[in-house]
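Table S2 (continued). Query chain:
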Amino acid sequence: MALNDKIQIGPEIVAVTNGALVANDAFSAASAVVDNSATLYPYARFVLVPNFAIAPAAGSVVVMYMQHIEVDGVNSAPVPSATYQHDFIYSFKLDSVPGAQYLESPLFEIPDKFALVFQNNATGQDLPAGWAATVKLRGFGS
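Corresponding output:
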């Protein structure tokens, strides 16, 4: 019997739309909670669309962290910040050009409920308001 399992494409969930300005080396506020508890997709890709008015520094990144929500059914993990840099998920490497950049992560395992926090890490520029982040849910099936 041949294996016929394929990656199943689930819904896309907008975690951040029209994100607020994030100063250089600062952290964003937590995104809206992404609730995967009904569909239970085990994996996701993350899409970040920053729109820098001025080119970010060469080799700089926007770092994505995950806050686990309702870890024990009620309580949530602390919001990632300068003093609590957990759980690191991915660093989106930026091109040194102004304008919108469409950046996608590899596939990651995800919990039932989570929020995302982004760090504008040494880009040399503020991340202007209006950026977006999307979660692309993925699973396996025939």
